[in-house]
Design a protein that fits this description.
Helices cover 48% and strands 14% of the residues. It has 311 residues and is α+β, with helices and mostly antiparallel strands. It folds into 2 domains: 2-96, Phosphorylase Kinase, domain 1 (2-Layer Sandwich); 103-309, Alpha-Beta Complex (Aminoglycoside 3'-phosphotransferase, Chain: A, domain 2), CATH 3.90.1200. The strands form 3 sheets. Strands 1-2-3-5-4 form a 5-stranded antiparallel β-sheet, with helices on both faces. It has a 3-stranded antiparallel β-sheet with strand order 6-8-9, with helices on one face. Strands 7-10 form a two-stranded antiparallel ribbon. It starts with a helix and ends with a helix.
Length: 311
Amino acid sequence: MMTRLEQALQQWRPGEKASVLPGPAGVASPHRLATEWAGFHVELNNERYYAKVLFDDQRSLVDFQRSAQISRQVGELGITPQLCHADSATSTLIFRALDDSFHWAHLDTFSTPAHFAALTKVLDTLHTAALPAPTSTRQQDMLNLRKQCEQANITLPDDMLCLGECADLAWQALNTLTFNPVLIHGDNIASNWVVNHQGEWRLLDFDYASYGDPWYDIATLIHEQLPTDDYWRDAIKAWRGQVSEADVARCRLYAMVDDYFWALWGFLNGHTSTRGLEFAKLGQWMQLRCRESARDARFERWLTLTAEHAK
């Protein structure tokens, strides 16, 4: 990975000597960090950067050109680090580094009302920017993951078939909704957020950004906080000023299909990756969360409310 980074740096800034230190080690479970890219802290002529080199086993999952294009566009909004260079030959992205006051977020900070308002403000900025979005939707990306699992002859846990059927039912209901499709992040877990002491937030890693409903990002942001029933309602109301039973149903279904997506992702990587990360363990955790939603006594009610709300 270091050799590929050095090649990318020479292509970008030929003849300049760079100081390079490795970034965080990869962790797949319980929270994903540096699982798709190897990170490096880079200094060139007293300027600091952060470089990411795509792991070979992620090439079938991460579209490099798509990630680079979206990262460059969103960087102009000021809600994510600016992309300075993208080298397709080495699958390397080089960003301007944030200052040292920024650090990765913790789950407990997500539930603080002031922080939650700031997080949704960042997402609202993304959703209202009218940026060009990829043609693929989150549902299409899910179906692609399912297809890759089948092609790899992966034996999934028994109840993944049932959970897949539930996810399809959820998408069937969600697809009846009327909304203005926008660029959504699709992966706003805690490890994809950084914050400084002034409470300024930045959103990282647009590898799974897609074309869809802005409610998807809000639902998964709330779901990341392992919310109670009351918190679902309170959080939605804090975001949009009001909340209905149909709003909660919409978010709960998006959270459920997101868990299914990442369960597939974990099981696929657990089968195909040789890097020793606990991908399968992540898949099991996401499967458990998905199962809890699918087996919730209100699941059919969520489907009905969502479909009826679209009429």
